[in-house]
Automatic annotation (TrEMBL):
<keyword id="KW-0963">Cytoplasm</keyword>
<dbReference type="InterPro" id="IPR012720">
    <property type="entry name" value="Chap_CCT_eta"/>
</dbReference>
<keyword id="KW-0547">Nucleotide-binding</keyword>
<keyword id="KW-0143">Chaperone</keyword>
<dbReference type="InterPro" id="IPR002194">
    <property type="entry name" value="Chaperonin_TCP-1_CS"/>
</dbReference>
<comment type="subunit">
    <text>Heterooligomeric complex that forms two stacked rings.</text>
</comment>
<dbReference type="InterPro" id="IPR002423">
    <property type="entry name" value="Cpn60/GroEL/TCP-1"/>
</dbReference>
<dbReference type="InterPro" id="IPR054827">
    <property type="entry name" value="thermosome_alpha"/>
</dbReference>
<dbReference type="Pfam" id="PF00118">
    <property type="entry name" value="Cpn60_TCP1"/>
</dbReference>
<dbReference type="InterPro" id="IPR027413">
    <property type="entry name" value="GROEL-like_equatorial_sf"/>
</dbReference>
<dbReference type="InterPro" id="IPR027410">
    <property type="entry name" value="TCP-1-like_intermed_sf"/>
</dbReference>
<dbReference type="InterPro" id="IPR017998">
    <property type="entry name" value="Chaperone_TCP-1"/>
</dbReference>
<keyword id="KW-0067">ATP-binding</keyword>
<comment type="function">
    <text>Molecular chaperone; assists the folding of proteins upon ATP hydrolysis. Known to play a role, in vitro, in the folding of actin and tubulin.</text>
</comment>
<protein>
    <recommendedName>
        <fullName>T-complex protein 1 subunit eta</fullName>
    </recommendedName>
</protein>
<dbReference type="InterPro" id="IPR053374">
    <property type="entry name" value="TCP-1_chaperonin"/>
</dbReference>
<comment type="similarity">
    <text>Belongs to the TCP-1 chaperonin family.</text>
</comment>
Amino acid sequence: MAAMLQPQIILLKEGTDTSQGKAQLVSNINACTAVADVVRTTLGPRGMDKLIHDDKGTVTISNDGATIMKLLDIVHPAAKILVDIAKSQDSEVGDGTTTVVLLAAEFLKEAKPFVEDGVHPQNLIRSYRTACYLAIEKIKELAISIEGKSLEEKKSLLAKCAATTLSSKLIGGEKEFFAQMVVDAVIAIGNDDRLNMIGIKKVPGGNMRDSFLVNGVAFKKTFSYAGFEQQPKKFLNPKILLLNIELELKSEKENAEIRLSDPSQYQSIVDAEWNIIYEKLDKCVQSGAKVVLSRLAIGDLATQYFADRDIFCAGRVAEEDLLRVAAASGGTVQTTVNNIIDEVLGTCEIFEEKQVGNERFNIFSGCPSGRTATIVLRGGADQFIEEAERSLHDAIMIVRRALKNSTVVAGGGAIDMEISRYLRQHARTIAGKSQLFINSYAKALEVIPRQLCDNAGFDATDVLNKLRQKHALPSGEGAPFGVDINTGGIADSFANFVWEPAVVKINAINAATEAACLVLSVDETVKNPKSESAQGSCCKCYGW
Ligand code: ADP
Ligand code: MG
């Protein structure tokens, strides 16, 4: 009875919400599984898309794990980790974002019965880490290098990787067409690391197949003044002048206060203003440039002046486009028109202004340094083009990764099945509980082929059993077998060119294991009540 009389110890502020122990862990795992259930159906070539709309009326249709996770606005603290790994997978390798979420959730799901049975999470974490290490070593061993091949061969291999990425997207129907385009674009920019050197321009209308690649830069015609119509719209090998200055008649009185004692002096000021602009324009013309672009406005006077001298001009060009023209044409953006030397002028084989759908486009092609490429995307609805752009982004990232790391593995769940088999086999050599945990990890990897089947309406159990049997062949010839998305059976993914860069899988397995371990290592969450100290009052005192 004495215990009841002891004063209660209050540690945290009133209103603090804590939950801890096994129950907390299980609830975190449940939350992660719920999140994975949202993206589950989007995996693979037969995956479904999600339509997400917010209260502002923005509608996004997407198949991309990272995009969906970002838009979901998840508030659960543990489940947020999954959003983070999807994002990091997106920025690190660009593809495999659904895969990473599914894997992490599956690792946790497999761990749940053990946690409920009282296994200490640290034991699970240790085994998961070992399994992850083994899996990655195995992927590296199985990966096939595309190094040392000729450019043509490399291009066709890369196109296959891009096609695999695109096959799960809305534009999957035209995957060969776009895969080729993406590979050409990536090869065009060479070793340049800046992704924005590949521009994607969206022009609603027309057919997907009307999309095209410009080996150079293309951008929408900028706002233009009267006189523009008289300018020539096509040049061969023009010199290009890039500016970051305004070519407008400026009222100098806006910038400075001028006091006049004699009204006749006013004319001299107006004249000076005209002289300033004419001098600038003269210098542009003298430079020999046939195309003048500026990031800032080019006014009506300048437009007419250039038109009279058969020069093309465009003002208010977006900075990104101007920089890409600079990189492609070999020119340098100038902030003054004084002393324009030949070296700062760029050039290209053909410059022309063309009609694309309802828009006019300025197109610079055949650029000497060729470090840029632009994909002009066509298609019906806005949401469609937006999703097409996201899909191309994935494909571009994949091709770049494959080009850099130059190893590929078989997709369609083949690599996942093979690692799963390997880990199960390895687990048998381990004594102790760890055997069970590594086995569970191996089982979790099967989620990828299983989900590919489920999403395509195949009998997953049937296909998985066939796959297990094939992969268990002692000769190892079954290793590249994965789900055949066309027939509902199994097929050699490698022979069918369902290829993925090894780095996608390595990164996905690494990130998913890390996330699962992170969630497993949390056994208590504390939610602080709204900080009251912000209002100047200290915590409530209960007479201590
Ligand atoms: P993620 O966001 O993870 O990239 P995707 O929806 O792009 O998800 O699906 C990728 C999965 O689909 C990979 O496991 C890949 O191997 C598989 N896949 C892609 N194309 C095919 C195909 N033609 N046949 C079988 N599997 C495929
Ligand atoms: Mg993908």
